[in-house]
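Lab channel / #folding
Pinned by the channel admin:
"Please post every new chain as: sequence first, then the structure tokens as a reply. Keep commentary short and put observations after the output so the thread stays searchable."

First post following the new format, from NK:
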Amino acid sequence: MGRAFEVRKAAMAKTSAAKSKVYSKYGREIYLAAKSGVADPEINVNLKRMIEKAKKDQVPADVIKRAIEKAKGGVEDNLTSVRYEGFGPEGSMFIVECLTDNVNRTVSEVRNCFTKTGGKLGVSGSVLHQFNHQAIFAVSNKTEDEIFEVLVLNDINVSDIESDEDGVSIYGEAQDFNSIKTALLDAMPDIEFETDEIMWVPITEVKLTQEESFKAFEKLQNMLDELDDVQDIYHNIIE
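Reply from TO:
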């Protein structure tokens, strides 16, 4: 079904965690975005993006408001953004992004997840070069030609545009996320984004061949997802 399908599925999988975990995740990300810039989404584009993502995942307005007010009030959580790279079953590769107030605790917990499922935590850079950091958009109510015309008229370069029976997927550089989305929204206010995120997209993919590998993969994902500090998990396995 192509990458477009995989992108949609990956985005949907992110919302499958328990609501409390989702609320906590977005509360941290919104707090950090507001803390690292101006606590005004009309000025802070990163904060605006996080708020839009939270609303799409049905995070209540009061959770969003509390996180912003916390940042405005000068309450210091000392949250640090950290990224871990690891290897799973059959040579598969993982990127685990976290927000933590205790790096030693987090690296120990993440390493434990890999160790208990037969994998291993890699050093910085051991996996990252096999992924592209991209702005990903999946649109269901527009055609490829309509999307292409808007991008050309706004002099915006993207790495790829794909279409299938479900819609159109646009792949751009991570730093171009806001310019791509703004151009599309300005030209087509009724556009519907099924996915509008910045993701780590694998350059090559792995298809697991053994039943034990599938079990290890599922266990690793579940263990990582249960960690409060884990924000996002990316991998190169074709599910």
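NK: The longest strand covers residues 193-202.
TO: also worth noting, The two ends are 12 Å apart (CA to CA).
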